[in-house]
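Reminder: ligand-aware prediction takes two inputs, not one.
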Amino acid sequence: MKNLGRYSMGVGDRFGHQAEAQLKAIIDAKELGVDITPVWNKSYREHQIIHSQPSNTRLKADEAVKNLNWKENYFVDADHIGIDMVELFIDSSDFYTIDVADSIGISPENEDLEKFLSENKKFVGELELPNSSLRIIVTEKTIESAGKKYLTAVKQAGKIYRKIEKLKGKGNFVTEVSMDETDEPQSPSELFFILSAIASEKIPAQTIAPKFSGRFNKGVDYVGDVERFKKEFELDLMVIAKAVEIFDLPKDLKLSVHSGSDKFSIYKPIKDALKKFNAGLHIKTAGTTWLEELIGLAASEGDGLEMAKEIYSKAFERFDELCGPYKTVIDIDSKLLPSPDEVKRWDGNKFAQTLRHDLSNDKYNKHFRQMLHVSYKIAAELGDRYIDALNKNKEQIAVNVEENILERHIKRIFPVE
Ligand SMILES: [Zn+2]
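Here is what comes back for the chain with zinc ion:
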């Protein structure tokens, strides 16, 4: 089985120009004493919007690894794939995020549900959790309701897993099961029975991405009750430790948090919990790398700034089209967006400060940031003009990208002193 390591981090790179800067942040972390396995993730949705190919993600990752002489493991993640997309990612990926959120809530076959109920009957009562005095109360109803909600999704994950296994060969890839892109969070007890079903389905999942409570909007901070998140996250860690003890699951199974980047207010509880429970973590973040590109372009003043303004102005006109595919993961109040005319008068510094996620800066505008976050399609449409601008401002952008990952994410999540 491929070793993902205790800590791993998924980074996104929409335009395929920042893999080296991203890897540099991982190398910085290693020098600070924390080993993190880098994973480059790109979803089918992103490939479609940008018209890029999975092979390009692989190429850029391999290049960065070679140029920076990285000797440790690294992966390329086929992020959020369903059964029809498997083939597209077979050559380029060695990490598969099997997304079965769409199958949640579909009633399972009677026979399957009966089997699930009889396999799990033994847990009725109090479920003890390792290294804790906490207990989860399980009733027959708990099990039945988990089965009705999630069994079909897990069965679907099994189908997708077996398809990948057939094409890729057993043990040649990391498997993640994701259920995060749905409205209703999964409780820790539901997670336990999901893992039970994953084990019965013989999926060697190394990471599991549940939906946590609260909103994980793209590129901005967590919206929700941080205390509640903390309790839920800690219980999930304990549930996973328990599941690994009793079910036939990989020993290194860990939680995967699809953060949507920049969930600063929950990073501290995550960091504390990893330490408290001596647990591993996979975190997907830094889809905001592309925003660091924009910040770098804006800060360069001149042509770069003009291009950043042009992207905003076009995005503003195409609000519904750009926001539509992301409606469950953004909250933009269009009344609080600056008008393109106003933005035209800004200098680069003002643009950068309005966009950069620095809560202590009163110019920062989260609506502006989310709007631009989903506007990478406009940059893609600029084609070579955008890529040329990236090349021209390469150094400044690389500094932003590296600093964003190291300072705002790695140091806040992982136990770096
Ligand atoms: Zn996700």
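Residues 289-400 form one domain. The chain has two domains: 7-104+148-287+406-413, 289-400. We will return to this case in the review session.
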